[in-house]
Amino acid sequence: MLNIRKKNKLTTPVRKITNTGTKKNIGRFFSWKMRDGIWYESLLERDYMYLLEIDPDVLSYCSQPLKITYRLENPPQSQTWSRLQIFRRV
Fold first, then answer.
1. What are the φ/ψ torsions at residue 49 (nearest 5 degrees)?
2. Do residues 41 and 24 touch, judged by C-beta distance below 8 A?
3. Is this model's pTM higher than 0.70 or not?
4. DSSP state, 46?
C-alpha cells in the first residue's frame, strides 16, 4: 500500500505555491491526519481538506504531488495535480 504519511518524493510538492502577481487565498492547513502543514491555493481547497480530515475512509493525502507533461501539439503542455488522496478499500 502507498503510504504518503512518510516524507518522500510523492509528498514533496512539485511546484512552489506563491502569491506573486495574483490575489490568491494561499495558506497552510495543519492536518492531524497527516501530522503536517499542507499548503492550499484557494478557500475551496482548504474546505476540501476539512472534509478529508473527517472522512474515515481517507487514509492520507498530500498537496501538489504530481506533474504530468503531455504533448497534444507544440509546445508540450503540463498539468500539476492539486491533491492526491488515498482511500481505504471498502
1. -65, -35
2. yes
3. no
4. H
